[in-house]
Structures are given as structure tokens and as C-alpha cells.
Amino acid sequence: MESKSYLVQMNGVGGKAGVPARSLNGKQGVHHVSVNGSLYPAKAKSRRLRWDVKASDMANSTLNPIRAIVDGMKLTPNKDKAMIALSIGDPTVFGNLPTDEAVLQAMRDAVDSHKFNGYAPSVGYLRSRQAVANFYSCPEASLEAEDVILTSGCSQAIELVIGVLCNPGDNILVPCPGFSLYKTLAVSMGIKVKLYNLLPEKSWEVDLQHMESLIDERTSCLIVTNPSNPCGSVFSRDHVQKILKVASKHCVPILADEIYSDMVFPGCSCPSIASLSSDVPILSCGGLAKRWLVPGWRMGWILIHDRNDVLGSEIRQGLVKLSQRILGACTIVQGALENILNNTPQSFYSKTISFLKSNSEICFGELSTVPGLNPVMPSGAMYLMVGIDMDHFPGFKNDVDFTEQLVTEQSVFCLPASAFEYPNFFRIVVTVPEEMMVEACARIREFCQRHYRPRSCDSSDLEQ
């Protein structure tokens, strides 16, 4: 086929209107463009001789520790017993914890309005951001719409905060045991993760001395999860103030993962970290997922608390720029957000908390009397951690082996805490129906009684 070219007049490009723009070869007037859109004459280009498409370094360095462990487990449930999964942090799995009707109605109204079918600003609709600001503002830590960025779930909020605060080669401090996503995100960005210890004997308080010892000149962020996943712990006001004192001393900003804020059992209080900070900038990450029981709706937010203007405009603008990478959160949920926050009755929250507390007490009470197990009673969130005295279970190599065999024999799946880099524990999700929780605890007891050995047993005893 004959190749054709055309003259294309370039007016006003790169200069004032009416002034001919310069072509790529420096001459004014026209460009020669072939029919296939390339500049003419075309410059010869080298080409690959064979296909060689590889995943990026970022993709290859992305690893979810939970998936890495669970995918490697041999999970073959006992065919004679129905499976009870106590491993998934999704309160909707069993259908016993529906969201409130007011939440659903807010979504219906947003859909029916036909106002939220297009793009929103990448940081979210102004009215929706103001609704979040109003909901979480308090005298000790006031918020305006400009202090709120809406995100695609709390996970994206965490990703944006890590991304705006850290460069490759920096390090962040992460609780251990802690939510595995922090490490997944950081390592993929070339950021080092330093794990600071939580203390089970002190209801999972932070080992403050250990945490402070990890801080150096490349520490860009301290992550504090309160209430905790996977521990279900809730820090006291005094303990949060001690954490803030360390951050203030070393001038390290805090990423506060507060997705479980207000999911606190009666008798405990959990003030936001920002409300107790006088100088440490707090970037609080939250969302609808857990308190409103709609994790699949993917609505999260970042609350920027910076009363001394430590972060300045650069961090705020950086968050805006990063938010533009995916053009924001779901607009339908944004449209419903104001009504969700304002119209959800207190009775809905109270009912959820009452159920979680009751299930936690059942689980803790039952497993506390099982030889070889050491559960730690939670104070909030949806989880309970159970220690395994491995010396009493010599038939198992570690917590992964223990929980794998528990599935095989009893069809009960608890997440081994090695997934949170905390071996010899397992995590139980307490959102299952009560009768299922009772049954699961009975099966765990039966399993432990079968495999438990007193410390006095020697190898010859085990062989008999």
C-alpha cells in the first residue's frame, strides 16, 4: 500500500494564539505526519528480537504474610464436621451481623438521586468530607473538610499516608503482632519495617523502651493501631500519652490506624490519639468497614491533625497528588455518607458491641480452662489472641502446624499468629454466631486434650 503524508499546520501550540509553533526539528510552520501518526521521516528504531515481559520489582517485592502462610498450609477439613472459619476479619461472612437499615436507606437514596454517578474530586466530595469532619471533630482535635481525604477503604488511607511520609530507604515502626498490610505496603515501596513489641502479659501494651530503641534518623513514621488487630486490645489514656511522649521526643509523626475506633467494650474508653496530642502530627486512618459492618463498600478516610502546622502544605498537597492516582473513593457511598454518619442509631452500635463482648467472654472463658492454652481477653475490636504453650504440644513444630492439624481433625480454622510475625499464638475472630463460637471452643478443647502432654513426659513416654 502506498504511504501517504499530509501537511499539518500547528497554530498556537507552545506559544501565543496565532503564532506558529516550532516543529520538533526547530522549524516553524508545518510537521510532516504519516497516516499512521508517526513523524516523517521516521527514525530507525531498535527492536526486541523476542518476547521478554517480566513483572516489576514492586510487584515481585509485594507479599502479604497472611496469604504466604495460609496458602502454604494443607487445609483438609474433617469431612464429618462442618467447617467453622474463625480466621477471616470480615464481620459479614456468616450473615448474623447485618448493617443497620438506616445505612442501607442512605445508599438507596444516593442511588435514586442520580447525583453520584460521575467522577468526584480525587479527595472526595466537599460535603462528604465535611460530614466526616463534623462526625469526628472534638474540642481537643477539631476538624474541617480540608482536613479530610476520602479513600477507597482504610487500606488505601494507610497506603497514602505511608507513601506521603516515606522514601525508599526510610523505615517505619510497626506493632508486633500487628496488621500484616503495613509490611506488605512498605516493603513494596522500598521502605524498611521495624517491629516493636506488644506485651501479652500487659494486655498487649507497647514495650515503650523497645519501640524507642528502634528509632533512628531514617524513621519516618510510627504506626499505632488502637483498638488492635489482631489483639483486640485497647490502650488506656495514660499509655497513649506515653507513646506520644516518645514520638514527640524524636519528632516522628504517627499514623493512627483507628478503623476500630469506638468498637470498645463497656467499661473501657478509647480516646483518639489526636485528642491527646499537643504537638505530634497525627494522620488518622479509618472508614466504614468495621463499625458499620460494610467492608465491601470500600469507604475510608484520612483525618489530618496538625495543630502546630508541622506538616505544612507539602504533606497535604502530597496526599492530594497521591489520591489522584485512582481518582478517589466510590461516589455512591460518598453520596450516602452524610446520612450514614448522621442517621445510624446508637442502638445499632451498642448491639454490635454487646454481641462482640459476649462472644469474647464465651471464647475466653472456655479456652482459659484448656490446658496448654493462654487466651488474652480483648477490650474491643473483633479479635482474641490465644497463646499456645508449645512445650505441652510436642507433636507440633509451631503454631502453623498446630492450626493446620486443628483444621484436619476438628474443621476449625484459626489464623496462626506467625502471619502477624508473632509465633506460638493464634487469632480468633469473634464475629461468628454464638452457637458456632461455643461449638468451635468445644472442638478446640477436644483437640488440645488429645495432644496435650505434661512437661514431665520424656521422649520414651511419647512413643508409648
From TrEMBL:
<feature type="modified residue" description="N6-(pyridoxal phosphate)lysine">
    <location>
        <position position="290"/>
    </location>
</feature>
<comment type="similarity">
    <text>Belongs to the class-I pyridoxal-phosphate-dependent aminotransferase family.</text>
</comment>
<dbReference type="GO" id="GO:0004838">
    <property type="term" value="F:L-tyrosine-2-oxoglutarate transaminase activity"/>
</dbReference>
<dbReference type="InterPro" id="IPR004838">
    <property type="entry name" value="NHTrfase_class1_PyrdxlP-BS"/>
</dbReference>
<dbReference type="InterPro" id="IPR015422">
    <property type="entry name" value="PyrdxlP-dep_Trfase_small"/>
</dbReference>
<comment type="pathway">
    <text>Amino-acid degradation; L-phenylalanine degradation; acetoacetate and fumarate from L-phenylalanine: step 2/6.</text>
</comment>
<dbReference type="InterPro" id="IPR015424">
    <property type="entry name" value="PyrdxlP-dep_Trfase"/>
</dbReference>
<dbReference type="InterPro" id="IPR005958">
    <property type="entry name" value="TyrNic_aminoTrfase"/>
</dbReference>
<comment type="function">
    <text>Transaminase involved in tyrosine breakdown. Converts tyrosine to p-hydroxyphenylpyruvate.</text>
</comment>
<keyword id="KW-0585">Phenylalanine catabolism</keyword>
<dbReference type="GO" id="GO:0030170">
    <property type="term" value="F:pyridoxal phosphate binding"/>
</dbReference>
<dbReference type="GO" id="GO:0006572">
    <property type="term" value="P:L-tyrosine catabolic process"/>
</dbReference>
<comment type="subunit">
    <text>Homodimer.</text>
</comment>
<dbReference type="Pfam" id="PF00155">
    <property type="entry name" value="Aminotran_1_2"/>
</dbReference>
<dbReference type="InterPro" id="IPR015421">
    <property type="entry name" value="PyrdxlP-dep_Trfase_major"/>
</dbReference>
<dbReference type="GO" id="GO:0006559">
    <property type="term" value="P:L-phenylalanine catabolic process"/>
</dbReference>
<keyword id="KW-0828">Tyrosine catabolism</keyword>
<feature type="domain" description="Aminotransferase class I/classII large">
    <location>
        <begin position="83"/>
        <end position="444"/>
    </location>
</feature>
<keyword id="KW-0808">Transferase</keyword>
<protein>
    <recommendedName>
        <fullName>Tyrosine aminotransferase</fullName>
        <ecNumber>2.6.1.5</ecNumber>
    </recommendedName>
</protein>
<dbReference type="InterPro" id="IPR005957">
    <property type="entry name" value="Tyrosine_aminoTrfase"/>
</dbReference>
<keyword id="KW-0032">Aminotransferase</keyword>
<dbReference type="InterPro" id="IPR004839">
    <property type="entry name" value="Aminotransferase_I/II_large"/>
</dbReference>
<keyword id="KW-0663">Pyridoxal phosphate</keyword>
